[in-house]
TrEMBL record:
Chain coiled-coil ranges: none
Keyword presence, Transport: yes
Record key words, sorted: ATP-binding, Nucleotide-binding, Transport
GO MF: ATP binding; ATP hydrolysis activity
InterPro entries: AAA+_ATPase, ABC_transporter-like_ATP-bd, ABC_Transporter_VariousFunc, P-loop_NTPase
Name used for this protein in its record: ABC transporter ATP-binding protein
Domain annotation ABC transporter: ranges: 5-230
Length: 289
């Protein structure tokens, strides 16, 4: 099956500042992909380029077999919900649906209306008077009603309270369960990603640090804890390390170390893995094979 997104050396600069550097990734089709990294890592830049909202400075990108934003047909394949879950404050919910129907050739009006009804949103409500959670749900409804082949969500729950965030993620999970397609979801909340993501990409300092299936990444990383030691002789790649007194804790990428009674070897949770790559002393790593 052809990848939904591929990039080769993708780079975006703003003057002297590099927002995305030499990004080379392959996003498999039919997956829910989690995109994580600290603020300023390049996540939004990558997603905006993929959605056709921003041109790259260098490198190549292909989305669903075409160049992002290259024409109506390409735009119809992709739905993008930005960080601020944009809606038109002066328009009613019903106005949004009419706008969506006129601008999207594959618009599913029945699904949009049914979804909004289930959420308790009335067609005569003005978007500017909706709560943050309701605006996010309206933006998600507008996106999924396009029937996109790729749904891109850039931290859509960042400004929501815990209840609204949970309701948004429940709606997203229901959509994923009912409809085919691919999703790329950027979020700082790793627990949200754990529930829905098959594939993970970690960006740090504008570069890709990890890229692979979640199961493969978790199986290929270990935490080694024991007496302080030189990490140069450890098998695999040292992703992060810390030393307190005479004790060392090391995050390794590669096969599990040979059993040693002096050291404890543990598997990582997804949050452990993400934090290891995001830590200030994390070292660059290659893609998972």
């Amino acid at each position: 099956m052809k990848p939904v997104l591929t990039t080769r050396g993708l780079t975006r600069r703003y003057g002297r500042r590099t927002a995305l550097s030499d990004c080379t990734i392959t996003v498999p089709s039919g997956k829910v992909v989690g995109l994580v990294g600290p603020n300023g890592a390049g996540k939004s830049t990558l997603l905006r380029i993929a959605a056709g909202a921003l041109p790259p400075t260098a490198g190549e990108i292909e989305v669903l077999g075409g160049r992002p934003g290259s024409g109506p047909g390409q735009l119809a394949k992709v739905a993008f919900v930005a960080q601020d879950t944009p809606v038109y404050a002066g328009l009613t919910v019903g106005d949004h649906l009419r706008f969506g129907a006129k601008t999207n050739p594959r618009w599913d009006d029945a699904m949009a209306r049914e979804r909004l009804k289930s959420l308790g949103l009335k067609l005569d409500q003005r978007a500017g008077r909706l709560s943050g959670g309701q605006r996010a749900q309206l933006a998600l409804t507008m996106a999924v009603a396009k029937r996109p082949e790729l749904l891109i969500l850039d931290e859509p729950v960042a400004a929501l309270d815990p209840l609204a965030r949970r309701e948004f993620m429940q709606g997203l999970m229901a959509h994923i369960a009912e409809h085919e397609g691919s999703v790329i979801l950027s979020s700082h909340v790793v627990s949200d990603l754990e529930r829905v993501c098959d594939h993970l990409i970690v960006l740090v300092d504008s570069r890709v640090r990890a890229d692979g299936e979640v199961e493969d990444l978790l199986a290929g990383h270990h935490r080694l804890t024991g007496p302080r030691r030189d990490t140069a002789d450890l098998p695999g790649d040292v992703i992060a390390e810390s030393h307190v007194g005479r004790q060392s804790t090391v995050i390794l990428r590669g096969p599990a170390p040979e059993p040693d009674p002096a050291y404890e070897v543990e598997k990582l949770s997804l949050e452990d893995l993400v934090l290891a790559y995001m830590s200030s002393d994390a070292r660059p790593a290659l893609e998972m094979a």
